[in-house]
Amino acid sequence: MKRILTLLLIGFLISSCSNDDDISNQIIGNWKLTEAKFYGIEGEGSIDYSDENIIYNFKANGILVVSGGDNAGYTNGEYEYFFGEDHLGGNTDPKVLLVKINNSKWTYDLTNKKMTLGQSYVDGPNLIFERK
């Protein structure tokens, strides 16, 4: 009986542990930019990039490679990035899951296989991607 309880306890502990690697792997790979949305004092707008082949390649080594042309986010080239929890504002703000590209902070959301990197919190664009 003790063996069974011990095995059940071990199984419960293993299944309840979160794996940070799963979170960091969410962003790694090629993402096609499909749209940029803008929100601000002057109104809302968007740019449709779905017919273009603008790719953001988030590499496991912390390098982002942007290719395919001009867009509302970054020009073609390589950038350092961080993906994880950090303070969006000052150190008194709670930590949130975000992407930091060359020290610019972007909110992160992955819903229905679409990734949104957002700077609408500072009147910047929200970039919408689909995994390629």
Automatic annotation (TrEMBL):
UniProt-listed PROSITE patterns: PROKAR_LIPOPROTEIN
Keywords in alphabetical order: Signal
Signal peptide: 1-20
Name of protein: Lipocalin-like domain-containing protein
Organism: Oceanihabitans sediminis
